[in-house]
Amino acid sequence: MKKNLNEIEAARITDHVVFGSNPGDPCGAFIIAEANERGERTGTTLSITVNDGSKSGWETAAVEASTLQKVPGQKRNGPQEQVPSQPTFDQVRAVKDFFWEQNETVQIFIPANAPKDESNVIWLYRKVGEDAELPMSEQYEPTDNVTDFKQAAAIEDELASPDGPNNDGGPV
Q1: DSSP annotation string for 24-92
Q2: Where is 122: in which H helix or E strand?
Q3: pLDDT above 60 (res 125)
Q4: Could you tell me which of 136, 109, 146 has the C-alpha nearest to residue 124?
Q5: What CA–CA distance (Å, rounded) separates 142 from 131?
Q6: Confidence at residue 153, expressed as pLDDT on a 0 to 100 scale
Q7: 121-155 burial, b if ≥16 CB within 10 A, otherwise e?
Q8: Which end of the chain is more exposed for a tag (fewer CB within 10 A), N or C?
Q9: What residues pair up with 131 in beta bridges, in sequence order?
Q10: In Å, what is the CA distance from 108 to each residue of 15, 47, 122?
């Protein structure tokens, strides 16, 4: 986890009885208003709580999105309300980049027998002081290219096949 959170300190909640924290603290809550490429607010807000893992051994970030929407039944320019929503991959990735170094891997776990969580919160975890072992690290190096992800899935399917890898030289 990053030791210096200067780039996100402006989003820290400092005046809340439960979630407030002091600037520079390794734990805290943050609210980020999403903006488009022109810097205009999109109406989506990310609420994030972060823990450095000093007590539990796990660094964590809980991410929840909400979107400003028109109140149903109201006029076109009528009142709006924040409606909770599931964070997108890009939003979760941005949170990862805010709080962890580029070379640190974070994970999303779904524990066995976990109760169904309907709160739209995505939890990111990283074991303090350990690098996560990644599946297929020798066969595939992930990139941002969607085609590469499809190729990785095909390789994974081939390796898991009872017939073993396709060695006929043709496409996977």
Answers
A1: T-SSEEEEEEEE-TTS-EEEEEEEEEEE--TTTSEEEEEEEEEEEEEPTTS-TTS-EEEEEEPPPHHHH
A2: strand 122-127
A3: yes
A4: 109
A5: 16
A6: 65
A7: bbbbbbeeeeeeeeeeeeebeeeeeeeeeeebeeb
A8: C
A9: none
A10: 30, 17, 7
Q: How far apart are CA 91 and CA 69, in angstroms?
A: 18
Q: Which residue reads 């997108």 in tokens?
A: 88
> What domains are there in the chain, each with its CATH number?
6-131 (3.30.1460), 134-172 (no CATH)
| 134 phi-psi bin (left φ>0, alpha ψ -120 to 50, beta other) | beta
Residue 172's pLDDT is 46
| Length of the chain (residues) | 172
Structure tokens at 116: 């169904």
Q: Rounded distance, CA 29 to CA 90, Å?
A: 20
Query: In one letter, which amino acid is 52?
Result: D
pLDDT band at 24 (very low <50, low <70, confident <90, very high): confident
pLDDT, tens only, 56-88: 999 999 999 998 877 777 777 777 788 888 899
58: tokens are 């796990």
61 close to 123: Cβ distance less than 8 angstroms: yes
